[in-house]
Design brief:
This protein has about 120 residues and is α+β, with helices and mostly antiparallel strands. It has helices spanning about 30, 60-75, 90-95; strands spanning about 5-10, 10-25, 35-50, 80, 110, 115. The strands form 2 sheets. It has a 4-stranded mixed sheet with strand order 1-2-3-4.
Length: about 120
């Protein structure tokens, strides 16, 4: 049921985002195996966003996130998006799209292995 958003500019791939509806947030790929962050109700999720290097810094990412948010809000009462804490460019783009910080998901790694929290 998830969908993909693909943006092309001058015949070249400029941006890709995935989006769908979730009952929980799972950041296993980014943080290792964690307990899911349960949501109060099914909510929109925007994830795995990528912008081509030559298209960065031009407002494309916040524009796509804003458009997808509008689409998802027609289906769900709220929309979530997340990024790694060190990805400052994504954090800025997410904030430019109108999102605000809600919390952090954390994990610990010891000798390359994720530890449960």
């Amino acid at each position: 049921g998830d969908r993909i958003c693909v943006v092309c500019h001058d015949g070249h791939l400029a941006h890709v985002s995935w989006f769908g509806v979730r009952k929980q947030l799972d950041a296993d790929y980014e943080l290792g195996p964690l307990r899911p962050w349960l949501l109060k109700h099914p909510s929109g999720l925007i994830y795995d966003c990528w912008t081509a290097t030559q298209q960065r810094g031009q407002g494309l990412y916040p524009s796509v996130v804003s458009t997808l948010t509008g689409m998802l809000l027609r289906e769900t009462p709220e929309v979530w998006i997340y990024c790694r804490a060190e990805n400052l460019a994504s954090k800025r783009g997410i904030e430019k799209a109108g999102f605000s910080y809600r919390g952090s998901l954390k994990s610990w790694r010891l000798f390359g292995k994720f530890l449960p929290w």
